[in-house]
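[Q] Does anyone have a clean structure-token version of this?
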Amino acid sequence: MECSDRNTSVLDGSLDHRIRYKAVRALGQLKDPVSEEVLSEALKDDYPIVRHMAVFALAGMGTDSAAAKLEELLGSKSNYLKSRAAMALIEIAGVPDGRRENLELLFKLLGSGDEQVERAILQIGDEAIPFLLSKLNCSSPIERQHAALVLALRIRRAIDQLPAGYDLFPWLALHDITPQSISDLYRFDITRKGNLVHQVVNTGFDGISRALCQGRMIRPSRRMKGKNQGNS
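[A] Here you go.
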């Protein structure tokens, strides 16, 4: 029996999932490139713990082919699996540079929770704004959360870079960020099972507010100061 055949047999679906889990863990510890194909198949296992261990095992391989498999997982329906794949991919390849051509991948890597990913997107600057605005309307609540938070950080950075007393609204208008767009950062969705509410998901209201305010007062614009002086 060939080595690959033996590897495949230990992941036979008729075996208890705990045995398959241990087999995947053992293959990961061996770090044998021959096992990569088997570990890739384990990503499709019916049991989440087997799939998650396969992600860790592939990350430990550290090869380009393993990284390619992990990148495919960034489109998974499982948020947990996407998150683990993002962390594993960063472990292998690091965080991509903050360039426009990397924006799509960087956005997918936000699930890792690595702040370096946020900083890389912010480095892209204003070119990233239309992309992030479009993500506010995507079907995935998690993606909307990520887009809302990074947009809030970008708006705050713009506020901090303006000279004291200058109005922020022209900058917002230049980038098609309307008051409604900012309001749309704060969004929640309700999923139901029959007539019953199953889950309420929001875009991370506290995180957005912290990003926008960052514990500091937003400087009043020159226009507002003049208005206040006229009324005093």
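[Q] Thanks! Anything notable?
[A] The CA atoms of residues 98 and 123 lie 5 Å apart.
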